[in-house]
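Chapter summary example.
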Amino acid sequence: MRFVSALGGTTDVNLSTCFAWMRRMARIAWRGLREWCGDAAYERYLRSTRTRSGAREPLTPTEFYVEQLNRRYSRPNRCC
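The structure predicted for these 80 residues follows.
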């Protein structure tokens, strides 16, 4: 395929290159969404425990989420 670039020249674009770019953008968007909603918290925890020297055995996913829930809801709530 030939496209006219913004500078007035023509550019040859391979369809597989376009799909590869779209896949890469979709992957970046998916990672951002997972980070934003907190789904990637366990993977981030595993990466951080691997990089620390002398770290204890990593928690299982269930233990990690229970610990996160306890941390979030064990603080006093001063609302209203």
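To summarize the output: The helical segments are 15-37, 41-51, 61-73.
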